[in-house]
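To fix ideas, we quote verbatim a fold written out as tokens:
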Amino acid sequence: MSRKSKKRSVRDLLVALLMAVAPLVAALGLTGASATTASAASLNEVTGFGSNPGNLRMYVYKPDSAPARPAVLVAVHYCTGTGPTFHANTEFARLADQYGFIVVYPDANVSGQCFDVSSSQALEHDGGSDPTSIAQMVRYTVQNMNADAGRVYVTGASSGAMTTNVLLGDYPDLFKAGAAFSGVPFGCFATTNGSGWNSDCANGQITKTPQEWGDLVRGAYPGYTGPRPRMQLWHGTADTTLSYVNFGEETKQWTNVLGASQTPVFADSPQSGWARTRYGSTGAQAPVEAISVQGAGHTLPAAGMAARVIAFFGLDGSDGTGGTSTGPVHATGSGKCLDVPGFSRTNGVQTQIWDCNGGTNQTWTSTSAKQLTVYGGAKCLDATGTAAGAAVAIRDCNGGTNQQWNINSNGTITSARSGLCLDVTGASTANGAAVELWNCNGGSNQQWRLG
């Protein structure tokens, strides 16, 4: 049965609507001025992108900052959502402006606005239905927008997270990595009665061994022997719509697919209430990264999480494609690190130096856009003025020259707008000494090293 002709029961629609209410409310709180940051770029609908067996709609956001061969992010909405709504009410478009990648927003063009992750057609390579339509969107974007076929990624929430799992299984040849917010494993939602809803899966009653889960993924594209995409998983511990059990089952599945041990090799808490584990590698682009959010329901992504997705994908340049690097910024004169006081995320908080501790408030990324970002790209180092003595603070990234920095071979870091040097006030070596702009003078308090 084709997607276009498939009917849904009233019960299916009611459940789908319930699934979408919480993430929709959460998403509406994300934007502020983010997704509609001042830019001439706009969201455009694309038609004629393929045979489109799922009868989906395709929307594309290509920022003005896109390079000659931009990366592609497919961002998949939740039930009752739309492509334009997901564009407007999540942070991916702002991050696209910042890092220059294209965002493709599929739109489930059916009553209830859920994507098909249940039918047999949806669970095989080029089998038809929604995943095939989305694959056609990717191929169209690569062919017609000169996008980089080697840097295509997918993320989604709820129904979109399920779709992310399915796309990575169906199309390992198209996607380099995925990030699923509140989803279920590939194949978990499969049904044989024509229904789009699987209560056993939703309630966490379907569990399998890692090998069994992995075999479902491998069976979607028989004979495929190429590399498999990496996966980042997010789930709230209090999710009652798609049980938290599914988080563990997804982790079992993708570690098996990627040949990683079930035992994490890295664990930390990058933010209060978050428990992050990595499998197969300790690095920021590990084969599998799983982030459990304590007390969260079916409400993800929340503010700041999109930036973590972009960092996992390497779209901030940390995959080596943009000439960027991530790590502490060492103040040579004191041996301390550039630090955001108290892990604050408040705009205008002045930076300081402090004993190096590896915290997220001391982890900076130098981007290809000359920014120094912190908290996974959530904030930028900002010059609050152009005169000597102006504070150097954190602020929402805006692309301005006040947030552009030149990292020089002589060890200085200079403001692109004023030419002044990043300076530790009074040549202090004490914890808490403020960081400001000052006339460049060759002092050790103006010497820095990234990494």
Observations:
- Confidence is low (pLDDT under 50) at residues 1-39.
- The domain at 325-450 is CATH 2.80.10.50 (Trefoil (Acidic Fibroblast Growth Factor, subunit A)).
- The chain has nine helices and 23 strands.
- The CA atoms of residues 30 and 332 lie 38 Å apart.
